[in-house]
Amino acid sequence: MDTITTTKLSSEEIFNLMKKFITEVIGEEFVEEMDITPESSFTKDLEMDSIEIVSFSEKIKAHFGDQIDFTGWLSSMDLDQLINLNLGMIISYIEECQS
Amino acid sequence: MPVLRINNKSVHIQELNQNAPETVVLVHGMFSNLSVYYFNIAPILATHFHVVLYDLKSHGMSEKTLSGYDLESMTNDLKCLIDALDLKQVYLGGYSFGGLIALKMAIRFPNLVKKLAVIEAPDPSDEKARGIIEEYSREFLEHYVENFTDTTKVKMGKRQMEKNHRMYEYLFHQTSIKEDMILEKDFFEDGAINQLDQDVLLLYGLTSNCLDAGKNLNQKIKNSSIQIVDGDHNIPIQEPQLIGEALLNFFQQK
Q: Which of A9, A18, A96, B180 has the fewest CB atoms within 10 Å, i.e. the most exposed one?
């Protein structure tokens, strides 16, 4: 069980945390073959489908609690924005919520 | 991941706005999962309602099960889930095969279902709808993905293709889903649907293969209304905002 984090994370720490969540969701064997960078897009590069993004959202919720409304943020996007969503955008969003 | 034990199997659920006094339960379709509602439709409903989503057996992140895909078994599962959450009465919505489950639920447990919304439920006697199961092959999946790509703009990569292929292979070749579906072919004709008393909203796509099924249901159910939306069978993905708002208005009307 994750404990809710209230300390402010640097962008590198957020990136590493997101990588950890992605690995937990899609499995280490797939992540090993990938070069995950802030430019990696969720649907095209990481090939995450929507149920995997549900899992990923849940991990963010468990980690950050009410501090970050990740699902709310995603639901404000249209399909094109969701398709183009990359890790860097999520890092910026989490940084904004922390400031 | 929130999981309930339902009929001895793990069922993945998601809840939004848990403190709201009234609950909407949404059922997804075959070969899909709760994410069809999670990002757009459920948050709209959650502005007023407690929303419960769950993955059907062998779908999404729920446990795999070899048998029990007939509407009786699927509604037994849903009844157990509603009981496990200690809900006395719910607004119920279902999409595609989930629409059939929702209809069956309202027939079997009329006091439990306050209002019913059916999105794109197919007529199970339609050979074409059931034919998909008969004709499944790797080529079918690739063809399906090509079409799917047109409406969602997402090209499925190798890992997703394999993942979906494994799910189709499992459901088509190892479970009783084919036989169970054939048993339901007279569902629209067995008279029980005509006895439904609740208010029913039917949502169908203008160019959907299932539109006739929607019109047929509208004739059979006395307190029904049909809303035809631009799009095909995939209207929850094509028009999530519109579907979410239509459901919200319908469930909120006194």
A: A96
